[in-house]
Automatic annotation (TrEMBL):
The modification 4-aspartylphosphate is found at residue 351. This is histidine kinase. It catalyses: ATP + protein L-histidine = ADP + protein N-phospho-L-histidine. Keywords: Phosphoprotein.
Amino acid sequence: MQENQVDSETTMMTIDQLRQANVALAQFVSHLLDQQQQIEDGLIKINRLESVAVMAGGIAHDFNNILTTILGNVSLAKMLAPKDENLIKRLSNAEKATLRAQDLTRQLLNMTKDNKPAKQLTSIRDVVQEAVDFSLRGSTVRYELSLPQGLWPVEIDAGQISQVIHNIIINAEHAMPNGGVIHIDAANRSIDDLRPVHLHTLSPGSYVHIAIQDGGSGIEAAHLQHIFTTYFTTKAHGNGLGLATAYAIMKKHQGAIYAESEVGIGTTFHLYLPASPAQHVGGQAGTERSTASGTGRILIMEDDDTLHDVVSSTLNMLGYEVMLTRDGHETLSTYQLAREAGRPFDAVILDLTIPGGMGGRKTMTELLAIDPQVKAIVASGYTTDPVLVNFEHYGFCGVLFKPYRAQQLHQVLCDVIEMPVRVATAGGPAAL
C-alpha cells in the first residue's frame, strides 16, 4: 500500500515537473520567436535605411551641382554689378539663401553609409550660430548664445557637426511644446588625465566645450543611459535616430557627447570637440584674396554644361585662362598636348564623378603618370566621399566642396598654384 502511494506521489510530481518544464519551454520558445521577430524587423529597418541612404547620396550630389550653378551665377553677378548698394544687398541675400540650402544636402549626406568626416579647420562660432538659427526658424522657442570671440579653432566636418547641433536643438524644442528659451554656451577646455568618467574616451588635450540647455520636461534617469542607442525613443512618432546619429558623429570626430537631466527642470547636452589653439582659421573664415588678381592656365574637367559656363566665366573675370573638358580621356589628351606645346597648365580642377565616363580619381592616377608634378584640385558635391576626406592620399593638392563661391574657388586656386613643386616618390603619388 505504501509503495503504491509513493509511486502515485512520484508520478504526480513527475507530471507536475513536466508541466512546469513545458510551460518554461513554451515561454522560452515564445521569447526566441519574439527575438527573431525583433531581429527581422531591425533588418528590414536597416535595409530600408540603406536604400534611402543610397538615394539620398545621389540626390545630394545632383542638388549640390545645381546649387553650385546658382551660387556661381550669383557670385558672378556681384562681380559684374554696378556699385549699387541695394542690388549688392539683394545678391548677397540670394547667396546666403543658397548657402542655407546647402544645409539640406548636408543632412541628406549624413544619412549615407560610412560617411567619414571631411574635416577642415573651422571656427565653431559660425557653425553653431548657423545651425541653431536654421533649426529654430519659425519656432516659438527662442535661443540665447554665449560664444566668446577667443574660441579655439576645431578641425571638423562642418556639415556633420551642424547635424549634431540640429538634432539636439530639435530634441530641446520638442521638450518645450509651449515655448521657452534654449541656452547655448561655448568655452575652451583643457582635459588632463584626471578627467571625469563621462569624458573617459577623450585623450588629454585641448577641446572646445559646447553646452545646450533647455527648460523642458527632462529625461527620466532610467531612460537617460539609453538616449544615444539607435531606435530608442520615448516619443509617439519618434524614430530613435537623431541622438544616435549625433553620438556616432561625435565619436568619428574623436569628441564626446553626454547629457545631464532633471525631470521637470530640463536637460543639458555637453559636446567636446578637439581643438587646435596654435592654429588659425584661413580660407573662407579668414581674409579672402582680392577677386581680380588671378593668373595662370587652368584646365577644368566638368560634364555639366551650365557649370562649364559659370565656372569658366568666373575664372576669366578673375584673370585666369581656362580650358574645359568633359571626361577623363579628353582631360588627359588636352593636358598632354599642352605640355608638348610648351604651354602647360598651372592647375587642374577635376570633378570627382563623371556619369558614364572616367571620373576624377582615375584621371588623377593617369595624370600623375604623365606628370608627377601636376597640381590638381578635386571637386564634388558628394562631400563624404573618401577621396575628398583624404584628398592628398590620392595625389590631389586641394579640394573644393560644392557649392562654392567665386572667392573660395579663387582662394583654393591661388593656394595650389603657389605650392612648391612636388617630387615624385616611388610606389605612390608625388609628395611635397
